Amino acid sequence: MLERARVAKASLYSTFGSKEDLVRAYLEARDQRRRKRISAALEKHPGPRARILAVYDVLGEVVRESNYRGCAFVNASAEGMRTDSKAKPVCDDSRAWLRELFTSLARELGVAEAKRLGTRLTMLYDGATVAASMDRDLSAVAEARAMAGELLDQALSSTLPRDDGR
C-alpha cells in the first residue's frame, strides 16, 4: 500500500499522528462509504422488508469486488484492538448503526420483537462477511439474504422462537 501511495511509512504516520490514528481515519472513511452505499440502496425500495434484504444485496456487491479483503471492522477487531484503542469507538458505532438500521426496519415492518430480529439480522450479515472473506464463498451472502427472508417471514407470522425457550 505504501508503494502504491508513494509515501514513506514515517510520513504517513506523521500526517495522521500515529498508526492508531491512521487506522481510525481509515475505518471512519469506510464507515461513511458503507452508510452512503446502503442508504442509496434503501432509497430504491418502497417497503421495510425489501430494504432489509437490500442491505444484503449491497454486501453481495461488496464481496464480489476484486479488492475485497473482508470486513475492515472485523479485521481491525481481530488485530487485538484494546478497549482504549482510538479505532474501537468507530467499530462500535458502525456496528450499532447497522444493528439499529435492521431494528428500525423490523419495527417499521411491524415485528413484535424488532430488537431481537435486528440482532439476528446483524449476525447473519457478520457471518456472510466472514464466510466471503475466509472461505471466498461468494454464495454466502445470497444464503444469508435467503435466511434473512425466512427470519422475516417467521417474525411476521409470530413463530420466531421466544427467549425463554417456549
Can you tell me about this structure?
- It is a single chain.
- The chain is mainly alpha-helical and 166 residues long.
- It has a single domain (26-156), classed as Orthogonal Bundle (Tetracycline Repressor, domain 2).
- 72% of the residues lie in helices and 0% in strands.
- The protein contains eight helices and no strands.
- Helix 4 packs antiparallel against helix 6.
- The longest helix has 24 residues, at 19-42.
- The N and C termini lie far apart (53 Å).
Structural Rg: 18 Å
Mass-distribution shape: elongated
| Order of SSEs | HHHHHHHH
What is the CATH superfamily label?
Tetracycline Repressor, domain 2
Instruction: Calculate the mean pLDDT score and round it.
Output: 85
**What count of domains describes the coordinates?**
1
Termini separation? 53 Å
Sketch the major β-sheet: none
The poorly predicted ranges are none
Number of alpha- plus pi-helical segments: 8
CATH class: Mainly Alpha
